[in-house]
DNA sequence: ACATCTTTGTGACAATTTTCACGACATAAG
DNA sequence: CTTATGTCGTGAAAATTGTCACAAAGATGT
């Protein structure tokens, strides 16, 4: 599947962010960009940006900066923007609905292909162009899908997770407070809104003067 | 305000997570817990947990573990769970609505006191018990509020941010894709749903066998 | 053509964070 | 009392990540 385990995780986490901004620049018709400019836009130190880019070789030109078109093309390849990754969303509550309306596909390699919920009023409808199926049909419908966004109530989280994995899902974006357990080989990224808010408040009170940090 | 700048940021970020799970244990009636057990629950290495706790002194007993009641009490104090922090939410779209229904107050020191939106149909109503005011009333209503959750469209982000800061807000949880610019002293945590999904997909494809990581 | 200005890419270093591994103490059982 | 087992707290080592600062290369202007 892949070869470069050399790229630090910290760098890998920043790549999608870079991609987004480079894409913006391209849309704005900008032809070149320096690490300093990019730094101001994404709020990451310019030296860090140069170092990050350098893991992929020499992408820029000295005295000039980076060619936006070239950079964009490079990131498109690196981030597999050409092959679309089908995603399913489980749990069409408020948060789930927000995702369905988000329209990720715009500049992205991900597309939410289908959603699942237990509510009969929702089943059969569409939100943001995404069809909603009943949760009982999960195993049946999930054949091509590799990634899932989990926005179900806490109590269902582990149960649904197991069904997803049995159906071949290898990546889960988990918005429930549950720290779900998965077999090796399955990636889980947790985003706990309550923890994020708590964290912000803690940092506000205990680290008053610092510059902003990632969550 | 505070004194211990000694606690590493990485540790600080995990504190709310620990708190949540210790609270769960307490509710379940558990009397003690070992770093190993906690490790399995929160998916953080047990040595890291012991190290994290040790920054606060000796919270546990050798050969025994940690007393849940004591630990909970300790975290309650450390995370300022006694003084409620008032929060405002700006932008009552799908995502904003999800937050309003989330009911953070349950086991938390944060409470969304008010929300703002530009839509006249929403202004004057309540969601999840939180009153919705017109965005024009922002400066007027925001007196006590120190933190804000930003769930507005991209185009408004920087503009609203500046108004928030003028009104005394010192912490922002930013869900817009914009990397907002703020003066020193204001904390911003960014959560970009699109970047999170991209990131998950990238890790799935390029770091296949690893164990799960934070987002 | 030349001097000057910019900006990259990176070696060296600093800071942060994680992990190992072990002494010390707790508890329980024989 | 002694042994076996479990667990913390923490020095020390390792790994990861971030920052500095500068030579080299190319861009730009006259």
From TrEMBL, chains A, B:
Compartment(s) where it occurs, according to its Swiss-Prot or TrEMBL record: Cytoplasm
Stated name of the protein: Redox-sensing transcriptional repressor Rex
Stated family: Belongs to the transcriptional regulatory Rex family.
Residues reported in the UniProt entry to bind NAD(+): 91-96
UniProt KW keywords: Cytoplasm, DNA-binding, NAD, Repressor, Transcription, Transcription regulation
Annotated GO MF terms: DNA binding; DNA-binding transcription factor activity
DNA-binding feature ranges: 17-56
Subunit structure of this chain's protein: Homodimer.
GO BP terms: negative regulation of DNA-templated transcription; response to redox state
Transferase listed as a keyword: no
């Amino acid at each position: 599947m892949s070869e470069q385990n050399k790229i630090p995780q910290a760098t890998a986490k920043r790549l999608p962010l870079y991609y987004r901004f480079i894409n913006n620049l391209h849309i704005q018709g900008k032809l070149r960009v320096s690490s300093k400019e990019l730094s101001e836009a994404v709020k990451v130190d310019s030296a860090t940006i140069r170092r990050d880019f350098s893991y992929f070789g020499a992408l820029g030109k000295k005295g000039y900066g980076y060619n936006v078109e070239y950079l964009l093309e490079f990131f498109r390849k690196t981030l597999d923007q050409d092959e679309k990754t089908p995603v399913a969303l489980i749990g069409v509550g408020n948060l789930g609905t927000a995702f369905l309306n988000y329209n990720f596909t715009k500049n992205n390699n991900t597309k939410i292909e289908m959603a699942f919920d237990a509510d009969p009023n929702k089943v059969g409808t569409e939100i943001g162009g995404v069809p909603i199926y009943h949760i009982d049909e999960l195993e049946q419908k999930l054949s091509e899908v590799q990634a899932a966004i989990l926005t179900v109530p806490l109590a269902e989280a582990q149960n649904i997770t197991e069904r997803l994995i049995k159906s071949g899902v290898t990546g889960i974006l988990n918005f429930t407070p549950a720290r779900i357990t998965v077999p090796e080989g399955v990636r889980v990224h947790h985003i706990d809104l309550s923890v994020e808010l708590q964290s912000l408040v803690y940092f506000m009170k205990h680290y008053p003067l610092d510059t902003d940090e990632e969550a």
